[in-house]
Amino acid sequence: MNRKILLTVFVLAAVLLATPYVGMVHAKGKGTTTQYYEFFLQGSFGPGPDTKGWTTKDNIEQVRNLAFYASYIEVTVGETTYYPDPASYSATMDLTLDLNTMTLYIRVHESFDIAGGTIYQHTAETVTGYGSPGAVTVGNLVGFGSGLLEGVKIQGTSEMVATGLDRVGTVMGWP
Question: Which domain covers residue 103, as residue numbers?
Fold first, then answer.
């Protein structure tokens, strides 16, 4: 019985880790030209309808499905800057805070409408020294497009900055 549970958890973890890359399959053959990409976001976070939180016996805080509400979005692709409607932005975050080491792990699944399509981005970030002035954020970003942006793929880094969230990298297949 324990082997079945362990195997089920392993398969579920593999599927969840592969999810951000599923959209990358569609990008093959769309074009090989890469351009500069920057996504800047301001807003606030708070509980959503499915938000759950708890603390484990090992002093680790968990929050699932925390919502983020955008107030300003700026996207730069190559030399062009777009200002998507913040109302089109949707995101959920999963947070794990290790209170023993003050390390925060963040996974974000977000989407927004732009240029006749929708961009889906997934980030994984680690904040060391959480809560201190010298906190350091390191994260990665993958994304893909749908609609008129079908075949677009995005890769880069993600970090929290004093004025918001900043995701920088390259985009391939932008029309």
Answer: 23-172
Residue 7 maps to a domain: no
Summarised one tens digit per residue, pLDDT across range 52-73 is 999 999 999 999 999 999 999 9
Could you tell me if residue 1 is inside a domain?
Answer: no
Tokens encoding 38? 């920057």
Number of structural domains found in the chain: 1
In a domain, 92, yes or no: yes
Are 43 and 86 spatial neighbours (Cβ–Cβ below 8 Å)? yes
Residue 3 has pLDDT above 60, yes or no: no
How many whole angstroms separate alpha carbon 139 and alpha carbon 124? 5
Q: Which amino acid is residue 147, in one-letter code? A: G
pTM attached to this predicted model: 0.79
Q: How far apart are CA 44 and CA 24, in angstroms?
A: 29
CA–CA distance, 1 with 90 (Å, rounded to integer): 39
Looking at residue 116, its amino acid is G
CA pseudo-torsion sign 42, 87, 150, 174: negative
The SS3 call for residue 15 is: helix
Q: How far apart are alpha carbons 130 and 103 in whole angstroms?
A: 6
d(CA 137, CA 102) in angstroms, rounded, equals: 12
Report pLDDT digits (tens) over 69-104: 999 999 999 999 999 999 999 999 999 999 999 999
